[in-house]
Amino acid sequence: MNDRQSAATGYITGHIPVPEEWDQVFDPFYYAANHQESPIRRKFAPSFQTILIFNFGTPGFFYLTPDEPLPVENSIVIGPIKLSHDYVLSPGTDVLIANFKLDAFYRFFGRHLQSYTDFMQHPDELLGEHCFANLWQELKQLPDMQQRVNRILDFSAAYLVERDEKSEDIVAGSHPESVINPIKEIAGKQGQSERSIQLKYKKYLGYSAKEISRYQRYKKALAWLQERAGQNSHIDWFEIIHEFGYYDQSHLIHDFNHFLGVSPAQYVKLQASICIAAGRP
After folding, report:
1. Could you tell me if 103 and 204 are in contact, meaning their C-beta atoms sit under 8 angstroms apart?
2. Alpha-carbon distance 215 to 235, whole Å?
3. What topology does CATH give the domain 7-157?
4. What is the average pLDDT across 23-36?
């Protein structure tokens, strides 16, 4: 999706970068507004992030399943987003989305949502106070998205705690270029069982090492595919299979269907309608 679409279309979307000191907490904020007379349906690509959505207009809808629309009003947290989901911007919907990176959601709220038992909640339910309801009222009065982002960052500074030193190795182990088996390496380094480290992944990051490893391979394949499609280059499916360690074409297709709900070939045709809220695959 382009960073900014023409206001003449009645559909505006883009990203707002964060200052360097917030780089380990948030990805660029994402915003979208529908000024058309008809609803707009799009697909959220998986990011393995938990997101905080502020809606300043008419209710939008997030689809937990293709036939299960859930209203998005005021403020709501969703995630970790491990699969693709449809969402609808109703006429008048105006959203701003904060994308928490790595252990930042845990550092803010002291816990992670568990997909998919408490996948979607109002943030005040997690904190046990009404601060987000008050923040939403403040944000709604501000004239532009940049000022809203600045206010959210100021607000976040009061709640964000320092990274737990026990999570340092976990965060490093979740990096795409980390060792093949980070669980075993971290367990050896910390003198703990592999089971204990697996539980820490869930605690600090909201997903397992196995889940994120699979996702990162898919994400690299997706980026490769986006680059070829953007250049209108011939796509050699066997090259992508070999490059990213898939067993065969069915294995590649299975991963794309799992994460996006479409095959790689279908993605090339539909990528304009798939939203990368974090600004990257």
Report:
1. yes
2. 21
3. Jelly Rolls (2.60.120)
4. 94
